[in-house]
Each structure stands twice: as C-alpha cells, then as structure tokens.
Amino acid sequence: MGMRIKFIKLLSFVISITLVFIVHPKEAEPLPTIPATLVNLKKQRVKITLEVAYTRSQKARGLMFRKSLPKNHGMLFVYKSPQILSFWMKNTSLPLSIAFLNAKKQILEIYPMNPFSERIIRSDSKVQYAIEMKRGWFRKNLVYPGTKVNFTLPSYVKEEAED
Questions:
Q1: Which residues does residue 46 pair with via DSSP β-bridges, in sequence order?
Q2: 55-101 pLDDT per residue, tens
C-alpha cells in the first residue's frame, strides 16, 4: 500500500510538471532586428525597427503571447517566394495592422487585425513580405498602399527563409 501511494504521488508530480511546460508558452527565441525606412504621403521619412521572422516556426509564433510592442516596432515576415499569405491572431492580445508587400517591398494591402481572432486575413495578391505593427500605425503615420519599405535583410535570412 505504501509503495502504491508513493507511485501515485510521483505520477502526480510528473504530470503536474509536464502540464506546466505544455500550458505555459515557452519563451520565443530572439529574432534578428533590422531598421527600415518608409516615406509617407507627406514625403516624411519614417523609421521603424522590425523583428525578422523567416523560419516556419518563427512565422507561426509571430507576435503571439506578447504583452506589448515598443513604439515604431513591428515584425517582418519573410517568404522565399511570392505567394498568397494568410494570417490570424490566435493567442495574440495586441491589436495589430498587417501590411502585405510584394517582392519589390511595396505595400499592396493593409488590414486591421483583432486580438485573439481566429478569422483568417488573406492577401489578395501574391506577396513576399508581411509587416505587423500596432493597430492604426500605418494610418497614423500616413503610410498607405503604394508605399515602398526600405530594408536590407541579412544574407542568412535570404538563404534560410522558408515558405
């Protein structure tokens, strides 16, 4: 009987520890950051800092589980080739806006995204990049479709980018 109780306690402990790791999201790996510049409708240069997500796992996680986003910071999603892209906001508490960019880094489309929404936001065109910023950032900074985003990707990002 004593052995059985010890076994049950040990099993309960192992299950508890396992659940902690399953339920609690692990810290995301640090992503490279790059500066980017846009010229808005008033011909003003707007500087931003972008975290670069280029692997499947980085892009799948995106900005999930983030509590905040610094001013003028966002995330750049990089794909190896142009394609129709789809995003959602599962496990993302921050209200965001997403811009879809073609291979020439020109914004083609911008959409608002609601926290925790599982509604799919899909690009109408084949695009190679997406940028997520705080909701309203593009409008507030007079950045609209047609705007070119100037940035240089590290060579390893270009080589290792996954679709």
A1: 38
A2: 999 999 999 999 999 999 999 999 999 999 999 999 999 999 999 99
Instruction: Check: CB of residue 106 under 8 Å from CB of residue 147.
Output: yes
111: nearest Cα among 71, 81, 144:
144
> Structure pTM?
0.83
Element (H, E) at 121: strand 121-122
Residue 156 sits at φ, ψ, to 5 deg, of -65, -30
CATH number for 28-160 (one of 3.40.50.150, 3.30.565.10, 3.30.365.10, 2.60.120.1140): it is 2.60.120.1140
Distances (CA, A) of 1 to 12, 114, 136: 17, 55, 64
